[in-house]
Structures are given as C-alpha cells and as structure tokens.
Amino acid sequence: MVNALVRAGIRQNRGTLIGMLVAVLTATMLATGLGVLIESGARGGLDPERYAAADVIVGGTQTFVSPEDASYALPERVPVPADALDAIRVLPDAAAVVADTTVPLSWGGTAIEAHGWSAATLTPYSITEGRAPRAADEVVVDGILAARTELGATITLGHGGIDAEYRVVGIAAADGDQPSRAAHVFVTDATASAWMPHGGATVVGVFARDGVSPSELAREIHAQVPEVATYTGRDRGAGEFLDAGAARATLVAIGSSFAGTAILIALFVVTSTLSLSIQRRRREFALLRAIGATPLQIHRLVAQEVLIVAGVGAILGVIPGLLLAAVMRFGFAQAGVIPSDFALTFGPIPPLIAVVAMVAASQLAAAVAARRSARISPIEALQEASTTPARVGRARTIVGVVLGVLGLAASAVPLVVPGTIAIAGPVAAALLLIVAVGLLGPRLVRIAIAVLGAPLRHLGSASAFLAATNARSNSRRLAAAIVPLALGIGLGLVQVGTQSIVAAEATAQSRAGVTADLMVTGGPSGLSDAAVGTIVRTPGVEAVNPVVVSQIIVSFVQLGDPTSEQYPIQGIDPAALGTTMDLGVVSGTLDDVTDDHTIALSSDAALATGAQLGDSVTGHLGDGAVITATVVATYTRGLGFGDVTMTNAALRAHTTSGLSDYALVSTESGMSASVQESLGAAGFTVLDHRALRAAGDGAREANSLVNLIALAVILGYIAIAVVNTLVLATGERRREFALMQFVGSTRRQVRAMMRIESLVAVVLAAVLGVLVAAAPLVGISVGISGQPLPKISLIESAAIVGSLSIIGVIALALATRGVMRSAPLTEIGSRQ
Length: 832
Known about the structure:
By secondary structure, this protein is of the alpha+beta class. The protein is about 55% helix and about 20% strand. It starts with a helix and ends with a helix. It is found in: Cell membrane.
C-alpha cells in the first residue's frame, strides 16, 4: 500500500520533487568535487621527468609531523645525509647509484637548472653533438636550450647574481619525452657540488639489479637507511619536484577548509528545499491523516519518496562533481598554488562518501520536515493547508538566539585579546552568525516585513499593497528565498573582507618598515655572498642588508597541549638594519641576533607561543633542521616582514639554493641615482624600495585567488539553490495568482506585485548578509590593524551583493511568468 502511494506521490508531485532532486544533485556535486581534491592531496602527484629512468628515487623526508600529529610540507629541499649515500651503494640489490644536485642559474634573465653530468643517466640524457664537460668552464645544454646557441659558442650564465662565461661543448637530448618543466644544462660534478650550500647530494637515483623490483629495492633502502624517503613508480615525481609535496598539502588544506562550510550550506539548502516541498503538500498529508493514516505511515511515505528522489539526484551529481574538481584544479593551477601538470586522483571513495552522506542527510531532513505534518491533528492539518504556519518552533528560536549571541561575543574577542591570534574569534563568529540567521530567518524576515510593509501599503499602488500584505502573511515562504541569499552574501563578504584587511595591513607595515633607498635582486637565481660583496663595494653605497625568506614550524605548549604553527621567517644582517629596515622593535634589541641560537619574534608570534625575552623556542626550519634559539627581541611588523627573524647566514644554510632573495641598499646622500645606474650596469636588477612586497604577499595573493575560486563555487551552488527555492515557492502560488485574476487583477498587476516582492526579498537579503558580515569584519580589522573600520574592496563587495541580488530578481521574475502561463480557470481548480 505504501509503495503504491510512493509511486503515486512521485508521479503527482513531479514538479515539487524535481526541486529536491536538483538540491541533492548540486550538493553531491559540491561534496564530490571537494572530496576529489582531498583524495588528490593524499594520492595525487606529478609524473617524473628527468628521473624517469631510475627505479627508485631517494631523498630527504620532506614532511614534518608535529607532536599533535599535524603534517607540514617542508618548503626547502632536505638533503640526503652523506652516510646514507654510502649505505645505499653497498646494498646488494642496487646496481647503480647516481647522486644529483639541482642548482638555479640564469641565462639572459631566464631561469634554468644546472646539474652534474653524471645525473644525466637518470633520464637518461645522451650526447647528440659534442662531448661531456670536463673543465669548470664547460657546459652541455639540453635540446630546449640548443635552439639559443651552437656547439663551441660561449654563453654567459649567472649564479647568485655573478655572471661567468661557459663554452658549449655538447648538446644532449633525452631518450623519449624531453623534460619540459625546466631547461637544463650540465656541468662537471665538481662545479655543481661547489655551487650547493650543503655540499652533498639532494636527490639520489638508484637502479635495481636484474630480477629485483623497484618496490623491493625501496623497502631494502628504507630498512638500511630509515631516515630517508623513497619513491617508486609515478610517485618518483614527488621526489623530483619539490612543489609536488606542497601541492598535496595545499589541496588537502583547501578541500578540508571549505568542505565544512560547503557541506553545512548544502545540508541547510537540502533541508530548506525539502521543507518547502513538504509544505506544498500540506493538503495531501492532511487528507491522509483525516482518512486514518498514522504518523509513522506519513513518515515512511515521505522517507521512501525522498530515498528514491535523493538517491537518483545523488547518483546524477557524481559526474558533474568530478568535472567540478577538474575545473577547480585548473583554477588553482592558474592561481599558482599547485603545478599546472599536477594530476588529480579520481577514485571511487569521494563519490561514494558524497552519495551516502547526501542520501543520509536527505533522510534526516525528511524526518525533520515531515514531523509537523505527521504529528498534528487532521483538523489542524486541514486548517494549515490553506495558510503557511505562522510560528517558528521554540527550540529553533532558542538555538538561533544562543548562536547569535555567541557569534557577537566571538566577534568582540579582539577587543580583549591583541594581535592576529584574536582573529580566530571573528572568523568562527561568522559561521555562528550564518547558522543563527538560518535558524531565525523566518522571524527576522517577519520583523523586517512589518517595518517595510507600512510604507509599501501607503504608496497608493495596488501592486505594492498586495506585495506588502502577501509578504507579511507568508513570511516563512519569503524567508525560504531570503535566507540563502543572505547567507551567500554574508559568507562572501567575510571571505573577501578578511583577505583585504590582512593584505592592506601587511602592505602598510612593509612600506613603513623599509628605510632603504633601493632593493636589489640577482635575477631568477638570487644573490650569493660574492654578489653582496660587489654591491657593498659599489661607490655611494652606505649599507647593504641581504635578506632571505623561508618558513619555520614553531612547536610550543598551548593550554597544556603540544601544538605547532608555521610562520614566515626572514634572515637579515643585524649590523645593516639601522638605515635599511625598521621592524618596530618593542622589547630587546636586534643587535643580539647573532647566530642560529638567537631569534626575534613578532608580537603576534610571541603572544601565540607564550614566549618572552630570554625564553627558548624550538622550531623546524624549511629543510627540517631543528633549532633551539633564545628570544632576544620582539617587534610589531610581523605581517610586513615575517613573524620570525634570525641572521642571514644561519637561515641561508637551511635553504635549497643557499642564496639571499634580495638586498636592501641605503645610499649616501644624493647618490641613489648613481648607485642604481652602477648596479644596473653590473647586471643586477635594481628597484625603488617601494617595490618590496610584504612577507608572504605572494602566498597571500595565491591564497586569495584560491579562496575566490572556492568561494565562487560555493556562491554558484547557493545561486542554484536560490533559483530552485524561488521556483518552488512561486509554483506554490498558482491558485493565488489565478484567484487574484478572477477578482479583477490583471496579469501585469500580478507581475508588478511579484517584482516588488522580489525587490523586498533582495533588499532584506542584502541587509541581513551585510549585518552577518559586519561584526566579524570589524573584529578582524581591530585585531589586525587596530582600526574599527575594515579596509575592504568596495568593488568586490558590491559584486557579491549585486550578483546574488540580480539572480534573485531574475529567478523570481522567470518563475512568475512560468506559473502564469496556465489559464486562471485551470489553476483555480487544481489540487493545490
């Protein structure tokens, strides 16, 4: 009997159930796309290029696992221990062991990579013209660079800002596919080793003897040298390309950070759509109750209908979800946060989890949505079949009020806790306020309509009067359209506003803290000690401060539990700070930063770690090296220059290239132009000091683009949900529109009434969205810059509010036209 009713219910309510199918389909699409990103972060990667011929690639462990089991991708290349190379060479199953070093060079302003000639066997490269290099000034170029030169020619290559001439003695091509990620030159092994800051190899390629599989050899190597990482098969790309590990961590972070928000919104949309769908069928359920149906039978009927429809929608959402993941991957690659050739992993687990989660969520939503229709008496159900239930449940109201109060309280955290650590409160507040608005939406809309309704009713327009009256009597139906719009606007404003506030303050700190006249770089390869010496000896130069930037993972105890945090770190020359850089020191002195056992912290980092002057801080540098240093100073401009500062020499020893990133140069009075001309003639790139970007600016811009891409996906989903909801809500009013026309209203007047209603809806949604975002953004601004007025992009904010508002107006107008296509006589006798 129930199965027959289920089939009949689906058949008779196709229009209503299509709305739910669309909601589940798009929710599954979103969950699948984010799930693919997370899985790709765990198992995706890059195909090997230069190391394609080696059976096993051995490198340092590029991941740091903190005491609290958080995983961090190390940004600098971890060298292979010298004794590890000897231990691998004596393994019985290793037929050949080849060490490799990668050195950044520049040729005419183009970044290229240099290697020792012995590493050519890893692809393998082979000489097609000429011979291998034998002297320190000889070089072999690959097939890509061969087009720029010829055998026997002399070319100028730069390392660390110092140019030298090399004679091309050979041209090498790879058997099979030519490596395309970078152009390569080969020098003698001794020359390549001399360029490396660590001396030894950074990567080792191992060839297995006949009959031994790569996986067996990898296990043997790891058993012999457990402190190294081994890579086989496609995973060799992770050993070859340092950015592969960072890309994996980035995808996991992106997928995880947005998954919570996206799934929360998806569940809200599915529940809201299902509630609206069941609300449209009040008369049907009332009649079933009147003829003896029990509450359990109503629940079973709804649950089975939803299971069928949601199951179909979830399955249909899988393929678009996989396509969405590919689109997001392309966007992230364009933003520069993952390599353009990073391949996603399309496994069955993310789609399966998404389908199961959305079907389960729809069942839970069905139980909640059908609760009132199943429990109230048949007489009350028949009464409510003609009107929208006026009141929101007490429990829902209480939870909404509590969450709203908590959200406002969390927004005020920066008023009592200083620094960037306090912005965690407002960020959490935004989510709390969004949920609160979702719960209190009908009540808030009813109050707002009561305020706006009076002016509308006194405009002297019949359409305005009808719009105000309908909005007030059906506030819950209007709230179903307003709340998703408001949530999208609020979420978008918080995301965009937070990025703008942080970027503006970082730029302000950087510009205020640079007191040098010039910024000098050595091109793509950085600045060596020799290059810095050349700059120092340039006439008119007063002081030179070489700067290297990297990352450090600081471990500390917070609230009794071990925790870790990754911070930007800079290496500077404290002796040159006086006329080149002002970090805003508030305690101690940077003169005491003398070696790798002394550091300075920003005020924010000191507050987060609980470190004070004289305390010891333990951290892992970019190559995984452990340092324990004493805090000798604290400063305020951490966003502009990095949260940790140590000496240039100490930090450079733990970077991949061992070079400085740039140098800040102060000049004698009136000599700036002369110095700039001299350094330019010497081959350096010289810029005005205002060209210096704040620490982490590149990462912030990339993260900003990533957030915008993910935000666009979520807002796109919200837009689909809004259109879906408006179509459902408007479809419920067929008989209402028909009755209005029977009593004398023209089609034009009905459409005018709906236009006014749509304007009321988008205005209320915009106001609610701005209010949701206002308190968190003010709190974030106070925490970051100390200013209560947030520095946000008006153009981006207007684009978010305007685009969603326009979507709402257009959707309601099209839905109204679609409903009014039928003749009034046909609709007045409809079953609704």
